[in-house]
Amino acid sequence: MNNYQLKTIGTVRNDSTGAFIELEPEYIPALQALEGFSHINVLWWFSGCDNVQMRSVLETQQPYKGAPEKMGIFATRSPMRPNPIALTAVEIIQIDYERGIIQITFIDAMDGTPVLDIKPYTPSLDRVETPGVPEWCSQWPKCTEDSGDFDWEAVFNF
Amino acid sequence: MNNYQLKTIGTVRNDSTGAFIELEPEYIPALQALEGFSHINVLWWFSGCDNVQMRSVLETQQPYKGAPEKMGIFATRSPMRPNPIALTAVEIIQIDYERGIIQITFIDAMDGTPVLDIKPYTPSLDRVETPGVPEWCSQWPKCTEDSGDFDWEAVFNF
Q1: Do the chains contact at B128 and A121, CB–CB below 8 Å?
Q2: What ipTM was assigned to the predicted interfaces of this complex?
Q3: What is the dihedral of CA A71, A77, A83, A84, to 10 degrees?
Q4: Which of A42, B26, B64, B71 has the least C-beta neighbours within 10 A?
Q5: Are the CB atoms for A11 and A115 separated by under 8 Å?
Q6: Would you put residue B36 in left (φ > 0), alpha (ψ -120 to 50) or beta?
Q7: Residues of A numbered 75-94 whose beta carbons fall under 8 angstroms of chain B's beta carbons: which are they?
Q8: Do A8 and B2 touch (CB under 8 A)?
Q9: Contact A125 B142 (CB under 8 A)
Q10: pLDDT at site B3
């Protein structure tokens, strides 16, 4: 029924020297002409959640403060989901086109995480001017630029 | 080296009656509590481009008017890419939680297209307030709301 083959196109490097997307050498030509885009959408693999148990989770108990008592996984950004594909819009600092390394300001992925795809953040496709959100998260930041200073620990029910 | 298993969680329905995401019955519980979000990010499979030849394409010749003569695939939204995963931010019209069907305003996927994941469009993660773009696409719409009225045929080099 399902026959999808994925390839690792790169790896997240995330340590004291910074955050980077490091391409597999064979994919370096695919980076050309990315200059000018300030952000990219990175698709990566929640490798820590790739097991039968975590991938069978469909509901979760109030993952955020004030949220509904029970939420479906497709209403959350939980890493435990049927297909553990993560999406992060990240800001580019600089690109080394020779070595195939993109330095970024931040990514919520651990060092060594497999990367599946990179797409330019294209405002006409990716930027919703006035998105609606539920009341329970209406106080969250309205854009990525404001997220860094937000007290996320205050909203997650960990 | 690569061992990723993906599941089809739903299917795009796109015909004269409208555009819909129809979940596989087993995943219907995962939709709970999506209400309040105006948009979702849909990850789907470019099934028409899932073959060895198209997946080996790393460069393309000036896909958009005024763009660089040669562009890397990771600088484009081309469906021909190493992992043919598509990302579309779509606007929700209504959700049938019983039948697991999300009616949406529009999606650039054909009827029958496999869906891999649904995530709530979360402004703090997905909405860049002031994204930078290259000069050659600086006249493209600045947000999804303005894309419907834009003359896309004038910018693609098909």
Answers
A1: yes
A2: 0.97
A3: -130
A4: B26
A5: yes
A6: left
A7: 75-77, 81-83, 85, 87-89
A8: yes
A9: no
A10: 77
| CA distance linking residue B87 with residue B36, whole number of Å | 21
Q: Which two tokens stand for residue A115?
A: 């990367």
What three-state secondary structure class fits A49?
helix
B95 touches chain A (CB under 8 A): no
Query: With pLDDT > 70 as the criterion, what percentage of chain A qualifies?
Result: 98
Structure tokens, A42: 């990175």
Side chain identity at residue B103, one-letter code: Q
Q: Rounded mean pLDDT of A130-142?
A: 97
At B67, the amino acid letter reads A
Copy the structure tokens of residue B52: 């060895």
Give the residue from A87, A75, A15 showing the smallest Cα distance to B35. Answer: A75
Residue with tokens 């960990």: A158
Place of tokens 């070595």: A99
Which of the four pLDDT bands, split at 50, 70 and 90, describes residue A2?
Answer: low
Q: How far is CA B24 from the centre of its chain?
A: 19
Tokens encoding B75: 């600088």
Alpha-carbon span A74 to A26, nearest angstrom = 34
Tell the burial category of B56 from Cβ atoms under 10 Å away from its Cβ (0-12, 13-18, 19+): exposed
Q: Which amino acid is at A124?
A: S
